[in-house]
Each structure stands twice: as C-alpha cells, then as structure tokens.
Design brief:
It contains 12 helices and 11 strands. 32% of the residues lie in helices and 20% in strands. It has 2 domains: 183 residues, no CATH class; 110 residues, no CATH class. The protein is an alpha/beta fold and 346 residues long. It has a 7-stranded mixed β-sheet with strand order 1-9-8-7-6-2-3, sandwiched between helices. A 4-stranded antiparallel β-sheet has the order 5-4-11-10, with no helix packed on it.
Length: 346
C-alpha cells in the first residue's frame, strides 16, 4: 500500500496533467444545484466535501441515454433499422466522490452485470472510470452509512482515497487503476511513516461522529410475505406524495423506461430514469395496475431497498445511508423510521 502526500498548491496542476489521459468528472455547479458532470478545461471539482443533491449515479447510468438510432429517410437502405450507438470507453477520472456514493454505484452494478445479462452501456461506463474518493471527516446528522456496511472513509469501491490534512491531501492508493491515475497526474511524493496512523485516527473519529443508525437483522430473517402483509403499511406510508423525489435522489435506484423518439429524419431508442413511485410505472396496456394505490407503491420502494435486494443478492440492503431521501422528502418520511418499524414489527 502506498500513501502519497499531495500539496494543495499543486493539486489543480496535477489534475490538468491527468487530463491528457482522462476526462475529468467531479462535483461542480450544475444548474441550480451541485452535481457530478464532466469538467471542461479550467474547471475543477469542488473539494469541500458537501454532498451533491443528486448522487453521482448519472456518471455510469445517465438520466437519459440514447442507446440506438435509425434513419427514417425514404430510400435509405438502412431505413427503420436500429443500430446501437457507439459506446464511449475512454478513461474517466471521477474525483471527489464520497466513499459511500462509490459503494452505492458498486451495488447498482450488481443489477446490470450478472451471469445472465451484462448491460454493455452501464458496465462499459463503470470500467472506464477510476474512482478517486474524498473522505468525509464530518458526517451530517442524516448520515447512517456505517449501519449499511460502508462509511465516510470506506475504501471498498474506490481506486484512491483522499484524506484532507490541512494544506495537503493524503492519497491512499488502493488499486492499480488508482496508481495509474496518480502517475498521470505526476503525484509521486510518498507521505511520512505516520500517515497511515493519521488516516486511521481520522476514520475512527468520523465513524464515531455518526450517531444515527438502523437495524435490519430481523427483516432479513423474515419471509417476504410476512413483511409484505404487515399491518403498519397504511400508517407508515400515509404521508407519502408519491412524488418520486427519493428515487431520483437515491444513489442505488436503477428503475428505467425505454422510449422510442423521432426528431427530423432520425429515430432514437432512449433509456430514461423512471420511478416505482409513479402510477404509470406498473400500468399495463390492458389498463390493469398491480400497484394502483400510493401505499402499494411506497411499500414497494421500502421492500425493495430493505428486503428484495438483500434476498436476491445476499449483499446487505440496497442503501448506503447517504441521507438524501431524508433531507429531500417534502413529506418528512424517514427511511430510518420505516426500517425500524419493519424490523420491530417483522
């Protein structure tokens, strides 16, 4: 294991050197809020550690993505024949991602990269990325990441972990991809012998600062039908507006819709984010809707997060404790409370 010492005064210069080999992606102003996007020349990732409103999920699973195109021109020999759009596999360095957000994207990959099916668009985007995480020394009041098998210093889904230390970053190189990125940036100064202990102490302090937690052991022990038919769902989900804010903000939601669109003489097959919280999501062509009521749709979201995912992948729950859904829910619904209710009444 190597730990580098990177002086902040040379940070942007190093990022610029790395641009010759990587597209730089990071948190930056994006409309009215901050989000993860490609950064143009002269732009650099915000390194203050503030959580973005939307997660970095869009880096590998865009909100709207053209998958195929076709010509609609009369007489064109390829008219009405869809052809896959070329997938961009050029290297990208995602700098400044929170450790639990990186873990969330690893959970998303479980759905798109299986023994039965491998989504070429999502998997190619994952493999093109080098993940340079920024540790979170001061977690928010709604952060419960340590309960979810991750945390503010979690290295499990990163190639490099950056830890701020006054006028420098300590960069813990975790993988060969991380080492290649650091070399391309010209970061080569090794930190002193005590750096590993300093990082460990900062990690312990950050994890101890998290006072919010959830328990889901009894949820995992119960059958789906026992949880599905519990008597608390009407009360638990009464306030939900089914607006879908939680699903769009969530770093692990992966629901999508496929639509065909026409513009001029070209046709497009597009994948767009969708939400299990909307009535249209499960509406059949016949008019039947198996999740017709708001309660049924809200129950589906929490059952998926806290039970279905765990049963299918045996990989913990489908949540990394980022707190976005808690912070942004207009009705004040708190997944920690829902999880506690399910765990107690299971």
């Amino acid at each position: 294991m190597t730990i580098l010492s990177i002086d902040k005064s040379s940070w942007n210069e190093g990022l610029d050197r790395a641009r010759s080999a990587y597209t730089l992606v990071g948190p930056a102003p994006d409309g009215e809020a901050r989000g993860f996007r490609e950064l143009a020349a002269g732009e650099y990732p915000a390194m203050d550690g503030r959580q973005t409103r939307l997660s970095p999920k869009g880096v590998v699973f865009p909100p709207s993505q053209v998958m195929m195109t076709c010509s609609l021109k009369e007489g064109d020999t390829r008219q009405n024949i869809y052809e896959a759009k070329e997938i961009d596999t050029s290297p990208r360095a995602v700098v400044g991602i929170r450790p639990n957000d990186a873990k969330a994207l690893a959970l998303v990959r479980l759905n798109f990269d299986t023994d039965e099916y491998r989504d070429p668009y999502v998997v190619a985007a994952f493999e093109a990325c080098t993940w340079i995480g920024l540790a979170v020394p001061t977690p928010s009041a709604t952060d419960f990441s340590t309960s979810c098998g991750t945390g503010p210093f979690d290295e499990s889904a990163l190639d490099v972990l950056l830890v701020e230390d006054n006028d420098r970053y300590l960069a813990k190189i975790i993988t060969d991809k991380g080492a290649a990125w650091a070399a391309s940036a010209g970061f080569a100064t090794e930190a002193e012998d005590g750096a590993e202990g300093l990082i460990a102490a900062r990690k312990e302090a950050a994890e101890n600062a998290i006072t919010s937690s959830i328990s889901f052991g009894r949820i995992q022990e119960k059958t789906v039908l026992e949880l599905y038919g519990a008597d608390h769902w009407e009360k638990t989900t009464f306030a939900c507006l089914n607006c879908g804010t939680c699903t769009y903000a969530c770093p692990t939601c992966w629901c999508f819709d496929i639509q065909d669109e026409v513009h001029g003489d070209k046709g497009y097959r597009m994948r767009n984010w969708d939400s299990c919280m909307t009535s249209l999501f499960t509406l059949h062509g016949s008019g039947h809707n198996p999740r017709e009521t708001p309660m049924q749709r809200t129950r589906q979201r929490f059952m998926h997060k806290l039970k279905y995912f765990s049963d299918k992948y045996d990989h913990g729950i489908m949540c990394v404790g980022c707190g976005r859904c808690i912070d942004q829910c207009p009705a004040g619904i708190d997944i920690r409370t829902v999880c506690d209710t399910m765990n107690r009444q299971a």
